[in-house]
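Two quick folds needed for the group meeting slides. Do the first one here.
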Amino acid sequence: MGPTSTLEGWTRFEFGTPERTYECFEKGAGPGVVLIPEVPGITPEVLGLAEHLVESGFTVVIPSLFGTPGHASSLAYSLGTIVRLCISAEMRAFARNAHRPVTDYLRALASDLAARTPGRGVGVIGMCFTGGFALATAVEPAVLAPVMAEPAVPFPLGGARQVDPGVSPEELTALQSRTEEGLCVLGLRFSEDATSPGARFDTLRRSLGDAFEVIELDSARGNPDGYSRGAHSVLTREVRTDPPNSAFAARERTVQFLRERL
C-alpha cells in the first residue's frame, strides 16, 4: 500500500448543477486542484495523495462520484463498485468516442474552484476509471493542468477501445485548439498495464503532440522497483517513500507540473 490518510479535517459540502449533485470534500489553501477518485472511491490511498497535495500548497476538492467516502479498498468492494459503474449512463464505461455526462459536472466544479482560489487556473487529476475524465474536463478554460493517470475508460476490450482517447471527437478537437494556446497534459501509466493500454497514449501523442507529456514506469519482469506486471495505480497504491521509488518520482513530477501550470 502507498501512503494513506483519513477524512479528518476535510470540509464536506454538496456541489450541484441543474443535472446532478455530488458530495465533495475540500481542504487546503492555494491554487485549486480537483482530485477525481479512482475505483472504488475516496479510499485511504486516495486521501493519502490528497493530503500530499494539500501539504504541497494546493486547495484540493474531491468529488464523491461513487463508493463510500473513507471506506477502505477491498476486492469485493471494488468489484461491486465496478459493476455499478458499468451500467451507469453518467460514466459510459464501454462507449467509444463518447462524451461522458459526468464530465459536464466536473467542468462546472473546476470552474467554481477556479473562481475562489488563487492562481491562473486549476488542475484536475483523474485516475484509473476517471483518468480520461481529467482530459475531458480540460475543455473548460479554467483547467490549466490536467493529469490523467492510468486512464482505463473505455474498458480496453478489443482493439478499437484500446486506441480510444477516452473523449468524444468534439472534445478532442477542442483540446487540440487549447494546446495551440498553451495547454499541456500530463499522462502516467505502467508499461505492462493492460487495463490502461499504451495504444491509448499513442493516440493522444498523435493528437496532442508535444503538449502531451508522458511518464511510463517500467513494470516489466525484473524492473528495478519490483513492481508486479499488474501494477496500476501510479499516484497512490504503488508509491513508496522509504526508499523513494519511480512512482514517488512520478508523484513529485505531478506536483511540479501543477505548480508550473497554475
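Then this one, please, same format:
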Amino acid sequence: MTLTSFGPANRIQRSAETHPLTWRLRDDGEAVWLDEYQAKNGYAAARKAFADMDQDAIVQTVKDAGLKGRGGAGFPTGVKWGLMPKDESINIRYLLCNADEMEPNTWKDRMLMEQLPHLLIEGMLISARALKTYRGYIFLRGEYTTAAKHLNRAVEEAKAAGLLGKNILGSGFDFELFVHTGAGRYICGEETALINSLEGRRANPRSKPPFPAAVGVWGKPTCVNNVETLCNVPAIIADGVDWYKSLAREGSEDMGTKLMGFSGKVKNPGLWELPFGVTGRELFEDYAGGMRDGFKLKAWQPGGAGTGFLLPEHLDAQMYAGGIAKVGTRMGTGLAMAVDDSVNMVSLLRNMEQFFARESCGFCTPCRDGLPWSVKLLMAIEEGRGQPGDIETLLGLVGFLGPGKTFCAHAPGAVEPLGSAIKYFRPEFEAGIAPVSAAVPPLARPIVVGA
C-alpha cells in the first residue's frame, strides 16, 4: 500500500491553501529534510509564534480555530491546553506526542513522521512555547523503525539550526525534544498508559482525576497530543483561524482537514488529506476507486478496528465526528476499511477480538475476562459449535464492556464492532449455532475465562 496523499490518477493538486498537512510532500515519497522544509516556508509559523505572539495568544488561536484531537477521541485541543496550570512557579512541564499508532487499519501518523518529520517538530515547538514546557517526548511505536530514524535525524538538524535546545530563536526559551520508542503495546495509545510506560512502569491506564495536566510524567504537569493534531498547529498559526475554519465542508462541525484513507479490496487503497465533511461515498468511490472487480462492498468501518461496522447505504454520511455519529458509530482515526462479500463476519470478528483481548492491560475484570470470553464464543460459532444463547451472551458482553463500565476506553472500543456486526449480520452468527439436539446443557458446559 502506498502512503500518499494523492487522489485518483494524481488529479488532486495540493497547495498550502487547501492541504496544510501534505502540500510539502515530495512526489517520490522521500523525506523532506530541513533545507527543503524551510524553503517551503517551514518554521515560519514558529518564528511568528516566537516573535509576535505570547503564550496565551497561541492557546487562544488554537482554541478559536476549533482544532480537535486527531487520535480518535476528538477532544478540543485548545481546551486541553487551557487545562495546564498557569502558575509560573511550576517550571517543570512536559509535552508528549502520542505516536504509538497501533490501531489496526491506521497508518496516517506513520506517513507524517516518515516524510515530514520537521512538520511534527515545528508543531511541537510552537505547542511547547504555548504550554511553557521545557522538554518533549515523541512516544513512538517500536515497529516504526523508519520513522524513528527520520525523526532522530530531523531533531539533530533542528538542534544544529538553533530551533531546538537553548535560547531558541533568541527568545530565551529552552526546549529539548527526544524520540522514545515503545515496547509494542496497543494500550499505550491511552495517554496515561503511555505516561506510565515512559516512566518505565507497566503500561496500565491511571485513574483520572488527577488528569495529566495536573499530575503527569514524573508527577509534573503534562500535555499529550497526537501526531496529526500537532502537525495542524503550524498552519493555524501561520494562516489564521478564519482560513482554517473555511477548509471544512458545509455542515461539518469539525474544522480543517483530516488525513483519511481506505484499505481492503478497493482499487486504489491509500491515504488522502481531505476536508472534514466529505462523504464516505466520495472517499470510497472518488478516491479509493470502489471495490476491485469481482468483489462487492459488504460493510465498512469508518475509522479503525475499534469503530462499528456500517453498511453500503451509510456511505452518504459526512466524514466528521457528528456525521458518523448520526449513523451509529464513531469517526475514530478516519481511516476506513472495506469488507468485501467474501468475508465471513464471524471470522473477522474473532480475529479482531483476539487482537483486543491480547492487548488488554489486564487491570480491570470486565476487559481482562470479558474479551477472552468473547473470543471463545466466537471461535465456537465460527467452527459450528455455538450453543443456543451464545449470541445473547455476546450481546450481554457488549453491554457489560461498554462506555463507563471499564477503567479505560479499550474494552468499549473492542466490543463496538462486535455489537454492530451482530446487529447487521446476525444470520451469519446464527449459522454457527449447533442444532438443539447436539447442544450441551448450559450448566454442563464450562466456560473458562482468561485462559
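Slide caption for protein two: Confidence is low (pLDDT under 50) at residues 1-11, 443-451.
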